[in-house]
Each structure stands twice: as structure tokens, then as C-alpha cells.
Amino acid sequence: MAEAFFVESQIPEQKTIEGILFPAVFTPNPSLPLDHPQFLDAVRAHKPYLESLLRSSGAVLLRGFPVRSAADFDRAVDAFGYDELPYIGGAAPRTNVVGRVFTANESPPDQKIPFHHEMAQVPKFPAKLFFFCEEEPRAGGETPIVLSHFVYKRMREKFPEFVERLEKLGLIYTRVLGEGDDPSSPIGRGWQSTFLTKDKAVAEERAAPLGMKLEWTEDGVKTIMGPIPAIKFDETRGRKIWFNSMVAAYTGWKDARNDPVKAVTCGDGEPLPADLIDECLKILEEECVAIPWKQGDILLLDNLAVLHSRRSFEPPRRILASLCQ
């Protein structure tokens, strides 16, 4: 049994939502110490058990296991056996560290990253996300998470007409990219990194399957994505979910090139109501769970079930990520 290696634990920050602990938390069995190879074997052997908890909770935190470096994390992700998803179309500046492991968003520590589903602004998005704490923050820097079906439920109760409009029309995301990355911006990924090429023709080829329109400028490109659904149906769990980057784009897609108010609109091109954005942000903050990072933590998220964000922090902090299909 997986319980022989993974002990289901509780921490103060967890919430019980609809009778289920969020997130699920596992720590090592103190009577069965594991080295790193044994940990990898245990993950492979008990993947169905861990996935069942991921399905019910939406998020699984592994704390206290022998994972110390980026290479250890890369091997742990590989042990789960999920296919890697290339980061094409994403906005965040990231650097490849080793194998299928990248830095998380590299924007400055004083900036918050608003709630979003990873790559919700493009049709091909990761099914699962792994985060790993290689170096814990001196202060702050949590990655708050919130259940998307619960956000949908609360928004539907409070703003039924707006949610119905979103369901019908979807959202349009507009972003202006420079040629190279801008690490000072939370959406500073340049077009060459976004499309993994320096060739404009190849960028066009890679944008086309996403349904993304490119308008080239003198020093970059404007990308127009959508209309794309803002509400999805989670077939695994049989429920509607709030699946979009509406709040993130409206409140956080700001830099020298981008105006966040223009970054996201309703699917008919009409501006979004600022007061509803504020109310949605309040709901996200009220319902979220923010667990302080500890060195060695691995957080596995179901990208359909959970939105995530990042709080500002006092360096040092090094969180790594891996995106999976």
C-alpha cells in the first residue's frame, strides 16, 4: 500500500472544501526512511493512489521527501510518467534548468502574479503542473491555490448574467511581445521564446494551430487569441469550472508594451466591467489556500481543477516548474 511510504498529513493552512481536504498533503513514513531512488520507485509504484487523491482534491503537496536539487526534481517528474508539454504560447519569462524543468515566472520579487490557470489563454494547455521549492523564501512568496469549480459556483451565484455572457462569448486575449525576453515584466516572454524560434515564418506556423493571430510591428508582434472559452466542463469530475486568465490579464498584464485593460475583453470585443473583476479577485482571495514553501516541497496541481498565483516575497526564493500533458 502507498500508505507504507506516503503518510497523509494535515497542516494548518489546509481547508476542508465540500468534505475534502485541499490540498492533499503527504509526508514520509518515519519508520520507513527513503533515499531518492527509493522515493522514485515509490512514486512509480503508487502513482494510481496519488492520482486518486489528485482527482478528488485537485492538488497534492509532497513534503519532506528526499528531493534536494533541480536534477532530483526532474527525475521525480519523470517518475510520474506524464508527457512533457512544450511551453509554446505562454506569457511568463522562464529559463530551462535541466531536462523538463524550468524556472517558475521570473518577474521581480515585489510583483504579485494574479490567479490564473496555466496557459488558459491558448487552446493547448498543460493538464498537470509540478512546482518544486529548491530554495525557500526568506519571507512571503507563497503560491496560493484555489478550486476553479468553487470559483465558478460563487461567481454564478453572484453574477449570473455576466457568467452566462462569458459562457456564451468567451474571452479575447491581446498581448504585445518584444523580440527578446523582458525579465522585469510578469508577461515579459518575447516572441522568439514564446514560439521557440527566431524565424517569423516558423512563429506564424506555430501560432496558426493555436488560432492565434499575429500582427508584426517594427520591434515585435501583437498576438490576438480568441474568442476562447472562459468556462469549461471538467469531464473527469462532471462539473463546470472557471477556466481563464481574466483576472490575471486585467490586473497583471502590464508593462511598457501592454495595457491590462486592453489585454482581455469579452468575446465580442466589449470591455470587461472593472467592478466584476474586483469582485472575482475578492472571491479568489477568500477561497484560496496559501501554504508557505519549505525546501524540497513538490506541489502537483491539476490545471483544470485549480488556479494558482504568486505572492510577493523577500529573496532568496527559487521555485522550479514542469508542465505536463
For this structure, what is the CATH class of the largest domain? Alpha Beta
CATH fold-level assignment of the largest domain? Double-stranded beta-helix
Give the distance, in angstroms, between the N- and C-terminal Cα atoms: 27 Å
List the uncertain runs. Answer: none
Task: Give the tally of β-strands.
Answer: 21
Brief account:
With about 325 residues, this protein is an alpha+beta fold.
Task: Explain the overall architecture.
With 325 residues, the chain is an alpha+beta fold. The chain has 2 domains: 2-107 and 127-136 and 292-324, Clavaminate synthase-like (Double-stranded beta-helix), CATH 3.60.130.10; 148-285, Clavaminate synthase-like (Double-stranded beta-helix), CATH 3.60.130.10. The protein is 28% helix and 29% strand. The chain contains 10 helices and 21 strands. The protein has helices spanning 36-45, 47-57, 70-80, 148-158, 160-169, 191-194, 200-207, 246-252, 260-263, 274-287; strands at residues 6-9, 15-17, 20-22, 24-28, 59-62, 96-98, 101-103, 113-116, 128-135, 139-140, 145-147, 171-178, 212-216, 220-228, 231-234, 239-242, 264-266, 298-302, 306-310, 313-314, 318-324. The strands form 6 sheets. Strands 1-4-5-18-9-21-7-6 form an 8-stranded mixed sheet, with helices on one face. The relative contact order is 0.23. The model has no long low-confidence stretch (mean pLDDT 93).
Spell out the key features of this protein:
325 residues; Double-stranded beta-helix; 8-stranded mixed β-sheet; 4-stranded antiparallel β-sheet; 21 strands
List the helices and strands and how they pair.
Blueprint: E1 6-9, E2 15-17, E3 20-22, E4 24-28, H1 36-45, H2 47-57, E5 59-62, H3 70-80, E6 96-98, E7 101-103, E8 113-116, E9 128-135, E10 139-140, E11 145-147, H4 148-158, H5 160-169, E12 171-178, H6 191-194, H7 200-207, E13 212-216, E14 220-228, E15 231-234, E16 239-242, H8 246-252, H9 260-263, E17 264-266, H10 274-287, E18 298-302, E19 306-310, E20 313-314, E21 318-324
Parallel strand pairs: 4-5
Antiparallel strand pairs: 1-4, 2-3, 5-18, 6-7, 7-21, 8-19, 9-18, 9-21, 10-20, 11-19, 12-14, 12-17, 13-14, 15-16
Helix pairs in contact: 1-3, 4-5, 4-10, 8-10
